[in-house]
Amino acid sequence: MSTIREIVVLSGKGGTGKTSLVASLASLVKEKILVDCDVDAANLNLLVNARVIEEQPFVAGSKATIRPDACTACGRCREVCRFDAISQGFVVDPLACEGCGACYFLCPESAVTFDQMLAGHLYVGETDEREMVVFAELLPGGENSGKLVAAVRTRARELAERRQGKLILIDGPPGVGCPVISSLTGASTTLLVAEPTLTGIHDLERIVQLASHFQIPVSVVVNKSDLNAEFTERIRRLCEERELQFLGTVPYEPGISEAQRQVRTILQYAPDCPASLAIKEIFTKLQSIMEVS
Predict the structure, then answer these.
(1) Rounded CA gap, 10 and 184, in Å?
(2) What is the pTM for the complete model shown?
(3) Whether 149 and 192 share a structural domain
(4) Closest alpha carbon to 12 in 230, 224, 221, 193
(5) Do 103 and 196 fall into the same domain?
(6) What's the pLDDT tens digit per position in 16-52?
């Protein structure tokens, strides 16, 4: 049985400070693989200054193409297309085509080809400390984001097994959609980053419900907690009511922006500031949870 643990850090929305927290936690861990599962806007690799050492194409989803040498302009493809993706000149718009295959199967002249398309790229990066970062980029309009996330996680596990690593730390995508589900399933535990706002509580409840559905243990951290003490306390009580692990709070720290401009974590930039001390305490609690899980 594999001893590799996967911690996925999630939030119900973007902008909660999730990536900053992942990079900070990563600076406290040795022998780990870093993963960014936000395939629409990966930026963990930028924060840890990783250079790309491996690139793989990601092929998924099919698009129709009409061969003019075989097309008789009968109009059958335009009749069955529900996305208005075929022009009067019988040329397929690849952005409008949804890949349903109706024109391909119903063309009486077999003039339509239906090939898989390049949807993105998967990358492996290496930091100055020779640590691996796996991430991906879905092309604009690309399909199967959940499948690309699964490919990212699979590559990360291969690297962890090859390097005999024991921890995969995942920066998950925002929201509760398909990429989040693909990031979450099979993980050892999830760390949820919440904001002390009314919408932050709503987003937290959505992601807690999703994690509970997949029976993934949940821990919670409130970022920028001192901006609203009332809502921070409400999140704490919510964790008590739902029997969730409340790992602590991280106060607002303006120095994080300057640290990012210098391609450093807040722990590297200001190791003794209140935010850095809070993150270290959260890391200690997270370690305890992983040891008993």
Answers:
(1) 9
(2) 0.87
(3) yes
(4) 193
(5) no
(6) 899 999 999 999 988 899 999 999 999 999 999 999 9
